[in-house]
């Protein structure tokens, strides 16, 4: 009976991804609009991007506070009226602040686009910044900051940023309790005035926005002269910490949060794609070397993974895990042990084939549907790239040999190049 | 509206197919009718530990994850008090690989000491990571134990105590498998770019020969009505006081579930909801509040939570919550307010129909709850709720004797006060 299950069914490898077409148009004033039309539901997601990130703000907290407070009252509507309207239409409006931009996202049923566009335009162009909303927001935010700081993983993540980039570097600078006293409402208003001109927007639309999209967008975001913005703020070279091992003790911790990593480069570097493959093998999927060794063989953790994060002027390669506190050193040794194996021995053919197939399936998954495709496209645009980047990755994945991967590992997985941050026991 | 086709195999396995032509992918979802409520009080956390072991391989297929990744897929699982759910998402052209893998592990597992030993450790780390080494992390353990005295909902899926996981033996594991893992105790749902007839053939081919198993009739002790208000105060190393109030309400399948759900939305779904506006923005007593219903298969809980702002006294915070409950009981929602939360629910149901995996999980659950057709009646059920029904649910649920209250205070770690 059970012989029946010995033989696996045949399967096909994915060798091609169909990228959804991107409609590129401009509004009357030249504001670029990128639209991905697809999906079975009459739903629209709109991302409106402004050059209003943490780097432009210079001081932690200013950029995100500005974006969040814009939704807490405009010249015509109170905070309460704004939330009533969003909820009544069953929509979502929120903002996300990154290093170099802030993105306002609207998700709604397409038939409510006219109302939601009017509202988001009001939020972006006529925020009132009421004093009492500012006070309340900062108080809540501070509580949240303190609460998050109780978690070993947050302690480790904050320290990791400072360690890899430098405590005074725009990418490494961390929010501290004292910043809550340092910032002022005037700074917030100034930041809004300089960074949120509607004509500085870039707009990304995904879903089934219907045929009234362009006139609607023109009505709200197509006026005023689009000015070429200078996105290239000066970002100095990274200044990693001098010590390679930083340990922070937290009383009563049962686990230790580990962050191990090194500064890297972004996706323009020729080795960025090779490193994607190496990273997947190391810790980028469930069957990775790190998961197999640290979780499935040794049982030291519930989860471990590695990630590559590109940044406009830098990048980072990191490993992240919460491990049994008493096994911290054992876990670190196991992680570096996997580095050594990848440097010395080519990945066996069957593992390599599996990783290639997995990565292709993962790509198919990431490019499935308009929403996630639009997110990927927006990120590519930041770096002045388009889907060609992923076509190159597909070609590389198909061709790369185990020996090439070993050589990449030899260059990039030297334990002396990595910083270790541990928080907990 | 989710279209589907349904067929039951001779061995009792129910098969549901939903065709979604907009994706190149497919989700193969297997929902087993077993959860933490099927555990005995001295062996808790077992359904979840077992979920981990389902990835430990079989005699025919030593690694489950390998073949999934080999065909470009991904897989995972979750356990709740009512269900254990497994899913594989693969490119639609490789759907048969998922059938092969799921059928093989439903047929028989390779129970090994090694696999059990490792997964015990992994689950213990999960226990620490999610519940013990997390500010406020042990609340699910405390509140369930306070609200339930008899029903197995009194422990969370991770288990009542780490020692239960440590002591799990291989024989327990084997018994658990043959008791609950059977074609006649599961729903297989396939959602994605597939032809339903082809899927029914694959189901017959791979699952058809698995024998029907003797699944014992479930006979759980039902929780008697709570007759007195219950309180528990604990001190922990946390930055701010926290309050959680839970009230017994009903089942997911009860007619008044929809009124219960909307009632919780009136309190806490969206920034305009009552608790956010009143308790956070106007009175500034809390930094965070929430309200939700469990929607369990046996009578569950209506939960209200709040994290206090510094310098706010617990009695004042609690009184403010109670005041909101009383106001709802006395006045109910306005027509506008009720319409607002209905709109939100209905548009969330539409957003939820975007992703094939989400649809697969929901179809499975509705089938297991007894009537899959209800999945498409949800919008109507919500729309039909009246302000008076909200009031009557609020009246019956928000009774002081029906309430268990947890005060979670900053202080010395790990001391419990009665």
Automatic annotation (TrEMBL), chain A:
Residues 182-357 form the Peptidase M16 C-terminal domain. Residues 68-137 form the Peptidase M16 N-terminal domain. One of its GO terms (molecular function) is metal ion binding. Pfam families: Peptidase_M16, Peptidase_M16_C. InterPro entries: Metalloenz_LuxS/M16, MPP/UQCRC_Complex, Pept_M16_N, Peptidase_M16_C. SUPFAM superfamilies: LuxS/MPP-like metallohydrolase. It comes from the Bacteria. This is Insulinase family protein. It comes from Marinilabilia rubra.
UniProtKB/TrEMBL annotation, chain B:
GO terms for biological process: proteolysis. Keywords: Hydrolase, Metalloprotease, Protease, Zinc. Pfam families: Peptidase_M16, Peptidase_M16_C. Residues 170-344 form the Peptidase M16 C-terminal domain. Residues 14-129 form the Peptidase M16 N-terminal domain. GO terms for molecular function: metal ion binding; metallopeptidase activity. InterPro entries: Metalloenz_LuxS/M16, Pept_M16_N, Peptidase_M16, Peptidase_M16_C. Belongs to the peptidase M16 family. This is Peptidase M16. It comes from Marinilabilia rubra. The lineage of its organism: Bacteria, Pseudomonadati, Bacteroidota, Bacteroidia, Marinilabiliales.
């Amino acid at each position: 009976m059970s012989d029946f299950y010995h033989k696996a069914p045949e399967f096909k490898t994915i060798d091609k991804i169909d990228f959804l077409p991107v409609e590129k148009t401009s509004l009357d004033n030249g504001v670029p609009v990128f639209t991905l039309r697809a999906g079975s539901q009459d739903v629209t997601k709109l991302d409106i991007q402004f050059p209003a990130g943490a780097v432009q703000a210079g001081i932690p907290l200013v950029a995100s506070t500005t974006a969040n407070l814009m939704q807490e009252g405009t010249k015509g509507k109170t905070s309460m009226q704004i939330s009533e309207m969003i909820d009544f239409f069953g929509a979502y409006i929120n903002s996300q602040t990154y290093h170099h931009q802030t993105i306002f996202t609207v998700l709604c049923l397409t038939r409510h686009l006219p109302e939601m566009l009017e509202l988001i335009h009001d939020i972006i162009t006529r925020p009132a910044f009421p004093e009492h909303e500012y006070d309340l927001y900062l108080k809540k935010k501070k509580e949240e900051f303190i609460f998050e700081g109780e978690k070993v993983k947050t302690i480790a993540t904050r320290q990791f940023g400072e360690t890899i980039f430098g405590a005074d570097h725009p990418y490494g600078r961390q929010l501290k309790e004292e910043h809550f006293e340092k910032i002022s409402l005037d700074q917030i208003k100034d930041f809004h005035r300089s960074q949120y001109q509607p004509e500085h927007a870039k707009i990304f639309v995904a879903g089934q926005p219907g045929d009234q999209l362009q006139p609607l967008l023109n009505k709200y975001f197509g006026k005023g002269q689009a000015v070429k913005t200078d996105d290239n703020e000066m970002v100095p070279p990274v200044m990693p910490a001098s010590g390679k091992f930083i340990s922070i003790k937290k009383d009563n911790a049962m686990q230790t949060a580990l962050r191990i990593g090194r500064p890297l480069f972004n996706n323009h570097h020729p080795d960025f794609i090779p490193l994607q493959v190496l990273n997947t093998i190391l810790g980028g999927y469930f069957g990775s070397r790190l998961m197999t060794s640290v979780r499935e063989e040794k049982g030291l953790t519930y989860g471990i993974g590695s990630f590559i994060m590109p940044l406009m002027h830098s990048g980072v390669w990191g490993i992240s895990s919460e491990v049994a506190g008493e096994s911290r050193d054992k876990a670190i040794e196991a992680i570096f042990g996997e580095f050594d194996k990848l440097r010395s021995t080519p990945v066996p053919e069957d593992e390599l084939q599996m990783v290639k197939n997995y990565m292709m399936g993962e790509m198919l998954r990431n490019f499935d549907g308009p929403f996630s495709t639009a997110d990927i496209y927006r990120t590519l645009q930041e770096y002045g790239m388009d889907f060609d980047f992923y076509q190159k990755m597909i070609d590389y994945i198909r061709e790369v040999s185990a020996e090439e991967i070993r050589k990449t590992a030899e260059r990039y997985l030297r334990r002396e190049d990595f910083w270790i941050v541990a928080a907990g026991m | 509206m989710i279209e589907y086709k349904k067929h039951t195999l001779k061995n009792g396995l129910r098969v549901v197919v939903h065709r979604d032509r907009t994706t190149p992918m497919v989700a193969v979802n297997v929902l087993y009718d077993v959860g933490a409520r099927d555990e005995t009080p001295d062996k808790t956390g077992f359904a979840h530990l077992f979920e981990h072991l389902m990835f430990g391989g079989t005699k025919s297929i030593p690694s489950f994850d390998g073949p999934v990744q080999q065909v470009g897929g991904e897989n995972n699982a979750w356990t709740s008090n009512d269900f254990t759910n497994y899913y594989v998402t693969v490119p639609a052209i490789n759907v048969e690989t998922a059938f092969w893998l799921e059928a093989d592990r439903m047929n028989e597992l390779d129970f090994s000491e090694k696999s059990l030993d490792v997964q015990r450790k992994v689950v213990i780390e999960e226990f620490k990571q999610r519940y013990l080494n997390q500010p406020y992390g042990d609340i699910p353990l405390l509140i369930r134990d306070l609200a339930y005295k008899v029903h197995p909902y009194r422990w969370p899926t991770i288990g009542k105590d780490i020692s239960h996981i440590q002591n799990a033996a291989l024989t327990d594991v084997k018994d658990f498998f043959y008791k609950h893992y059977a074609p006649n105790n599961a729903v297989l749902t396939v959602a994605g770019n597939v032809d339903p007839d082809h899927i029914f053939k694959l189901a017959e081919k791979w699952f058809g020969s698995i024998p029907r198993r003797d699944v014992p009739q479930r006979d759980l002790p039902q929780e008697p009505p709570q007759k007195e208000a219950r309180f528990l105060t604990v001190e922990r190393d946390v930055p701010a006081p926290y309050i959680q109030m839970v009230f017994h309400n009903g089942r997911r399948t009860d007619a008044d579930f929809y009124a219960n759900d909307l009632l919780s939305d009136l309190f806490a779904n969206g920034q305009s909801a009552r608790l956010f506006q009143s308790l956070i923005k106007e009175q500034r007593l809390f930094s965070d509040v929430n309200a939700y219903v469990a929607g369990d298969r046996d009578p569950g809980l209506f939960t209200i939570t709040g994290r206090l702002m510094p310098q706010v006294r617990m009695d004042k915070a609690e009184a403010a919550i109670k005041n909101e409950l009383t106001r709802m009981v006395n006045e109910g929602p306005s027509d506008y307010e009720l319409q607002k939360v209905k709109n939100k629910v209905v548009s969330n149901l539409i957003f939820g129909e975007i992703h094939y995996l989400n649809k697969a999980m929901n179809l499975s659950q509705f089938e297991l709850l007894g009537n899959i057709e209800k999945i498409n009646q949800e919008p109507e059920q919500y729309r039909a709720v009246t302000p008076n029904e909200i009031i009557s649910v609020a009246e019956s649920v928000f009774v002081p004797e029906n309430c268990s209250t947890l005060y979670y205070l900053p202080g010395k770690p790990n001391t419990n006060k009665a």
